[in-house]
Write a structure and sequence with these properties.
The protein is an alpha+beta fold.
Length: 375
Amino acid sequence: MPDATPDALTNGLLPIASQFVRQGQVTQIQPLGNGNINDTFLVRVDAARTDTCFVLQRLNTQVFPCPQQVMHNIHIYTEHVRQRLVHSPPAESRRWEIPRVLLTQTGQNGWLSPEGSFWRALSFIPQALTVETLQTREQAQEVGFGLGMFHTLISDLPPEQLADTLVGFHIAPRYLQQYETVLAALPETAEAQYCYTFIAARQAQIGVLEQAKQRGKLPLRSIHGDPKVNNILFDKATRQAISLVDLDTIKPGLVHYDIGDCLRSGCNLLGEETDRWQTVRFELDLCESMLQGYCAIANAFLTPADYAYLYDAIWLLPYELGLRFFTDYLAGDVYFKTTYAKHNLARALVQFKLVESIEAQESAIRAIIQALCKG
């Protein structure tokens, strides 16, 4: 790990990180990850000649206006899973880790800066790595197992115990309403017109999962909310999945949101930031491996109706995210972090191309799901 620059240690971060240090002193701070919402840093502490690390995050209160509800959900989740692991530990050959919330020197689960920013600290899981893009079917199967393990451990956690920290999150018909609100005269570019036409041609299908929930086909459960591939931690030695992190979006919802989002991020080898959106493809072999890994453990609680709507989840989540990116582009980039003009437009194009690839392979995807259901 490189030493923190003087700016990193003095430009507001050192006093913030020190709020969560009870012994020793901060020696290094560096950015961690590339999330679109929160600001995340890895902090190293020299405590009694022993180096320790923790994760420091500034919670985006525009996205999470009630940070204490976020912390409540993380506490409920971690305590529930710890008890589950005590009574039903994973196989001896497997490791499963849960981040701990670190308290401030005054015993609080977060720190509010004078300018109103909410900061919190989580334990750092050692000997772990993440991947941005899956390279093998074995990795894909481990990602599926990781999500299945997460869902299995909270399958008996009543969703009513969790606060809804993001009201409307993954409720696709609401995103369509937001889109229609900001839709005005479109910029006269071929890309924007493509997005407009793409959305219009498929908007009648956007309520498929919510309608199934309303009809009682799909139950409300406790979910992660954002299980992208780079939120899965792998053991450095065994290359097995050992944790699912970034827990801010834990809330009541449909497991199909998680499944669809995980496959969306894992089965696109070019990634959601590629500038080669015309060549984006949904990788069928990775889809099969991820679903195999997931269903191998999650089959214990999945119902026939859950399987019946898996394809719809795989199709809907990239469509939903593309819609959100395009809406943010039209609104002036007010939600997602951007680094250049038309960044959110470029992201939307990637997701819509992924949807096209999924649609072209619908029969094959449904055949994979059918085989897993029978298995």
